[in-house]
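Section 5.1 Outputs to date
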Amino acid sequence: MQILILLSSLTQVVRFANSLIDARNELQHKADVIQRKFVITKALLCKADRSSFDRLHQQIYKLELEQKRLEEDAFVYNSLQYQLKLSPAYKKMLELGACTEKAKQCEQVDNIDDEFADISFEELLAQEKKDSFWQKNGKSRVCSS
């Protein structure tokens, strides 16, 4: 099961991670379908007459087998996901993602700094005086010293 050792490029890791996401969604869908069928069949079994009892019991047995196969598939999925998380390429992908996020945040701060760097102190003071905080009943507040 050393599949992930062969994954060397980040592109391969992304593709593999996406295929795991698809597999997880498919497993979840199958689990939901089995659960619905199970609930419906058990409800029918409680109200069934003698002639349909055996048929419904057989359906429940098949659903239990299907559930067991689904649990085995989920185990394989979990082990593959665990191997992926341990791979150096996946860790590198997470580092790059964190660096990208940090760069975006720094860029946003720089944009804000640039926005205020172009304004003089006098202009900033004039804008602040227009702010509603400094206004009292439509008149400017006077600072007493």
